[in-house]
Specification:
Helix content: 40-55%
Radius of gyration: 18 Å
Strand content: 5-15%
Strand order of the largest sheet: 2-3-1-4-5
Number of helices: 9
Distance between the termini: 15 Å
Largest sheet: 5 strands, parallel
Length: 203
């Protein structure tokens, strides 16, 4: 059986890529949420947990064995070298998990892989087509601040600085979905869905 078309979806924090992914999921498309899976694997994969404890100390996990994301965020936030070390531990394991997930979804016409850092980690190289969800910076900041009460504007700006700017992502995108409060999102998703379901869609 032929492999499904692998479509990646990314966008900066606050762009609304998760919202767009939910619309695709409502259309019956299998969606792999790489960021959510990473959180799960960090708590359930014993080998990965051991590597994280060795690198960042035993306080990375609570006494019950669950990941202490608050602590881990504190020791990596704003520290690019530490964040890179964490990503180097987590992303290879997520890639393996994704490959396993993909084999269980080969009957679908296409699948969606959602991740904030598809370009930054080089994972986009394994994807057939890339969607970038775009929104103005001020709107993205406003969305995050209304969503995440624990974050300040400075926190959001710091996260943005650790991600590729939209201009770089858009230059590499095969498709762009504008979630800027000026364009309707659902019609854009439906148009792409129809293209991906088309037998003539190039791979």
């Amino acid at each position: 059986m032929a492999s499904p078309l692998q479509v990646g979806i990314t966008g900066g924090i606050g762009s609304g890529k998760s919202l767009v992914s939910r619309i695709f999921r409502c259309l019956g498309v299998p969606v792999y949420d790489a960021d959510e899976r990473a959180k799960i694997l960090m708590s359930t994969d014993a080998e990965l947990a051991g590597q994280i404890k060795k690198e960042f100390g035993p306080l990375s996990y609570r006494p019950d064995g669950t990941l202490d994301r608050t602590y881990l965020s504190k020791v990596t936030f704003g520290k690019s070298d530490r964040l890179e070390r964490l990503n180097n531990l987590v992303h290879p394991r997520v890639a393996e998990d994704y490959d396993s997930w993909l084999t269980s979804n080969v009957s679908f016409k296409y699948t969606l892989r959602e991740a904030a850092l598809l370009y930054e980690t080089g994972s986009f190289k394994t994807i057939n087509k890339m969607i970038v969800v775009s929104a103005p910076e001020n709107l993205k900041i406003k969305r995050v601040l209304s969503r995440d009460a624990h974050r300040s504007r400075e926190d959001v700006k710091a996260i943005m600085s650790s991600q590729w700017p939209d201009e770089e992502k858009l230059k590499r995108a095969d498709f762009i979905i504008y979630n800027d409060n000026q364009h309707l999102v659902i019609p854009q998703v439906l148009m792409l869905h129809n293209q991906f379901m088309s037998a003539t869609m190039p791979k």
